[in-house]
Amino acid sequence: MGHDLDVLAARFGRHYPRWLLALLIISTMTMVLSSTSINVALPAIMQDFAIGRPLAQWLVTGVLAAMTSGLLLSSWAQARFGPRATLLTSFGLFLVTSLVAPFVTSIWALIAIRIVQGLCAGIAQPLSMVLIFRTYPGEGRGMALGLFGLGAMMAPALGPTLAGFLVDHFGWRAVFWLPAPVCILSLVGGALLLPTLRSLTPPRLDVPGFILLNLALFGILAALAEAQRFGWLHDATLLTGAVGLLGLAAFLWRCTHHSAPLLPLRLWRNASFRHTSWVSMVLGVSLFGVTYLVPLYVQTVEGYSASDAGLLLLPTGLVLGVAVFAGGWLSDKLAARWLLVGGLGLLTLSTAGQALMGTGASFWAICAWASLGRLGIGGIMPGVSTAAVQDLPAEELAPATGTISFMRQLGGALGINLLTFFIEWRHVAEGASAAGDAQAFVQSFWLLTALFALALWPAWLLRSKR
């Protein structure tokens, strides 16, 4: 066939793996970048639509929740349709939604568009990893995976930097046009370079399980959001909360009774995996929650422009890039336990430092404390990847890796939702004033400090295995 992997390799020669790797890095970075680029635009969107933080946070948590679902769809879509059709469809949907988003006049329509974009990103990211494994069967695979991981990890920090400039000069709608040129490039390059690789015996998708998962995810997130807007005893809060909890119970029951569950709960019987899964959730909070909180804090309390708020995160992204490579090097010399404990320790110091600064801190002081946390993430990431599978048999490596990614995304979605809830609660408790807003953000940094400190316990319980 014209798009089999061997045919494409023969057509484009020995540089084909590099061309495909470049396409996958750029495409994935753009999708991941869009998940955080909206952060610096939230104050402008809130003002334009006359909404508060509880509703605006759906533009971030909706994406992360959909990415979480998409991760579980990815392997099925790859086997059923092949990476070529799946990725081209994802790129196409992402492009269409990026072009349509600036013209919507309803905040709920904008949230729906963001959810579609999150689903596309969640499906595309694991597929890119599969293609790298297939095109780099031996020599060069480590470097290829390192470059791909570097792009995926730096994207959340680079997104707000680019978006901040666009918001200040062209308005928040320009943020949605940011990924459009790369999506067009991805469609053209994908049509030329992406292989088919369809499975002759694709697995069946557990449709009821997937529906129950989304009812659980979005129901629980909606209940927390509605509680912020209307109170815990409002009908909307009780209804969405009931849907979420019943969906969660039914999903967990189905996972224990289905022959091929979306989430293999048997993995939690392994102590190393169980401890690492909680650390992975905290990693999601640190990656996405802090990237959400810091720009919102400096714009709301410190009076930064969108450009300055985005620029603040640029050095943290560069530090993260260096830290990821350093963490990978250390993972060959230290047990995963020490990487996790050290990384969580740095995260704890980072958020404690940001809380102790109070208001009026300098640009570089805020940047330095945030960068310290990024150094910690650089150690946690390879530690999580290693610790999750260190005591598992070979046949469990693939489901364990996918499940750990799921837990990281879930931590990001729940973390942002809970942070928003906490800020709104403390804002009202502190007098619903500008000073109350400042105190609420300071207390939210203390909340993160406590969370990161608590995560040291499961990390410490891991066996020191090399």
TrEMBL record:
- Where does this protein reside within or beyond the cell? Cell membrane
Every copy of the Major facilitator superfamily (MFS) profile domain together lies at 20-466
| Primary residence | membrane
Q: Which UniProt keywords apply?
A: Cell membrane, Membrane, Transmembrane, Transmembrane helix, Transport
GO terms, molecular function: transmembrane transporter activity
Q: Does the keyword Phosphoprotein apply?
A: no
Q: Classify the source by domain of life.
A: Bacteria
Where do transmembrane segments lie in this chain? 20-43, 55-73, 85-105, 145-166, 172-195, 207-225, 237-256, 277-298, 310-331, 338-357, 440-462
Pfam families under this entry? MFS_1
Q: Its family?
A: Belongs to the major facilitator superfamily. EmrB family.
What's the protein here called? Drug resistance transporter, EmrB/QacA subfamily
Native species of this protein?
A: Geopseudomonas sagittaria
